Amino acid sequence: MAPKDVPLKLDWKELLRRYHIEHRKELAPVNPRKSGNLVPKECVCKFCSAPVQYLYFNDGVKRSQILCKVCGGLSQVHPGFHRKTKYLCPHCQGALFLWKENKLFSVYKCCNDKCPACLTARKKLNFREKILVRIKSSVFKLRYSYREYHFTRGQLLHSSPKEPEGQFLFGIRNSLNTLSLVLAFHISLGLSARKTAFALNNIFDLKISYQTVLNYTEAAAYWLHPFNLANKGDVNDIQVGDTGTLSIGLERERILR
């Protein structure tokens, strides 16, 4: 919250001009004695937009409150800036700051304007893109970013079918040949449950419903799943992927297929 005696909209340049007229001298920038007391260079005063040269920490070793020397406004440091960072940029070895965070992942981004990755990406922009990046820089991904996912190895285990209640698979009224035909048409050939029931009725004169097809498949999946895991083929070192755009209402999302 802004102090009551500080207006919501101030201009730091105008305040410096008034200070010069009133005191007949320039307002000196902050000169911290220790380098550890430096305010992050990306910070600005949220009341008058004064640059970092006029900002200093106001709460000692906590370094969470910033006081502006120009307007006297007190504000909080953005939670993305930490003195002890978790990750470093592999290109410039600079500290990555927390940019975005949600329940699934956190995104850390490099804020160094002289980072080789950022400079290389800017050189690849054409004339129109260089104009657009000044207007809306979020359109381009020029800075190195790292995404940290919030899950463990245990949460990445393959899902497995649930064990059916009772010994359903061993108590079916039809023969194992009928069960094999159901799995062949529904799983191997990829027919729907209704089409499988229709095919068995018209080809083999087997009177079963589509719900029976689903029950047989669910019961057999539990017993066949360990066999599939034990006998699955090795994954190739080279994987092929493709991106596509999925439209949901008015929103569009890019997906990997």
End-to-end C-alpha gap: 46 Å
- Give the strand order of the largest sheet, numbering strands 1, 2, ... along the chain: 1-2-3
Order of helices and strands: HEEEEEHHEHHHEE
Strand content: 15-25%
Counted beta strands: 8
Count of the separate structural domains: 3
Shape: elongated
Low-confidence stretches: 1-7
- Alpha-beta content class: alpha+beta
**Alpha plus pi helix count:** 6
Radius of gyration, in Å, reads 32 Å
Report on the biggest sheet.
3 strands, antiparallel
Helix proportion range:
25-40%
Mean pLDDT, all residues:
81
Q: Which SSEs are present, and which pair or pack?
A:
Elements: H1 12-23, E1 55-57, E2 65-68, E3 74-76, E4 96-101, E5 105-110, H2 116-123, H3 127-135, E6 145-149, H4 176-188, H5 193-203, H6 210-230, E7 243-248, E8 251-256
Antiparallel strand pairs: 1-2, 2-3, 4-5, 5-6, 7-8
Description of the molecule:
This protein is an alpha+beta fold. It has three domains: 12-76, no CATH class; 96-152, no CATH class; 169-227. The chain contains six helices and eight strands. Strands 1-2-3 form a three-stranded antiparallel β-sheet, with no helix packed on it. A three-stranded antiparallel β-sheet has the order 4-5-6, with no helix packed on it. It has a two-stranded antiparallel sheet with strand order 7-8. Strand 1 (55-57) and strand 2 (65-68) form a beta hairpin. It is elongated. Residues 1-7 have low confidence and may be disordered.
